[in-house]
Amino acid sequence: MSIYASLPGVDEESPGGPPWAYQGSHILPTEDDPHAGCVSLASIPSHITRDGRDDHPDDGTPWPWLRIAIDTDTEDPAVVIGPAQARHLAEQLNAWADEADPTNPAGEGEDLVEVRRERDQLLTMHAAVTTQWRAAEKDLAQVRYQRDQLREALKTVNGQCRGAEGRLDELQKQQAAVNPPGSTSKQFPADILALLAHRTYLSTACETARLLDGAIIRNPDRDDLPAWRDRMHGRCRLNHKFTGAPCSCHCHQPAD
Ligand SMILES: [Zn+2]
Ligand SMILES: [Zn+2]
Q: In CA terms, which of 61, 169, 177, 190 is 20 to 30 Å from 152?
């Protein structure tokens, strides 16, 4: 009784059909050559045992031996096959090899190489992204540090600015106290004043206010100028410091 079990080979049933007849080593085959013979495969199932053999495979795994037979009517034990038949034969051989040696299936080996390649590419990408991320983090830390430094500097400058404004107010108050508008403390004695020729007096503040009036007409888009003009009229000292002559500016005339 045969221990072999047939596997699909190259014959009438297989894709591409049966092989062509081998007509000798001097003949170039053609598509029209007669078909003849077959390639048959046979494996040995796992349940086959023999006395003294304890190396039989696990259930369902064939013994690691495959019989390949070329059956032909001619004298030469050879047939001719084409690519379709060769591919079919290779599939059968690979399928058997994977079953007989499941620890190293051919397909898995290819997959493993592919997966390893993908993993290596991903690791390279990961390293690149990590480097960029670290650099960006460093930049961010640097920018945050500069921002904090600038914030501190801004606080200091703001404080100094407020201090300067306070001192300016103080100085203006002191000046107004020493020589307030309308003060007559610096005026000449009346007998000397009587000897002086009369001349119209326009205070420096009001004169500047009039210059600002001109600037306002020439620069209608500068809406900050009117406030400056009004401020200057407001700062007029009303009388000439030495003669007491009143400022002739229209701003001191009662409104109609
Ligand atoms: Zn005025
Ligand atoms: Zn005035």
A: 169
> Domain total for the chain?
3
Distance (angstroms) between ligand 1 centre and the Cα of 242 equals: 19
Domain co-membership, 75 together with 140:
no
Per-residue pLDDT, averaged over 112-141, amounts to 87
Helix, strand, coil % over all residues of the chain, rounded to 5: 50, 10, 40
Q: Is the pLDDT of residue 196 over 80?
A: yes
Whose atoms come closest to the Cα of 229: which ligand?
A: 1
Residues spanned by the domain of 164: 105-178
Tell me the residue length of the chain.
Answer: 256
Cβ within 8 Å of residue 24, ≥6 positions away: 76
Ligand 1 center from residue 193 Cα (angstroms): 24
Cα(235) to centroid(ligand 2), Å: 8
Minimum-distance ligand to the CA of 181?
A: 2
The closest ligand to the CA of 201 turns out to be: 2
| Predicted TM-score (pTM) of this structure | 0.41
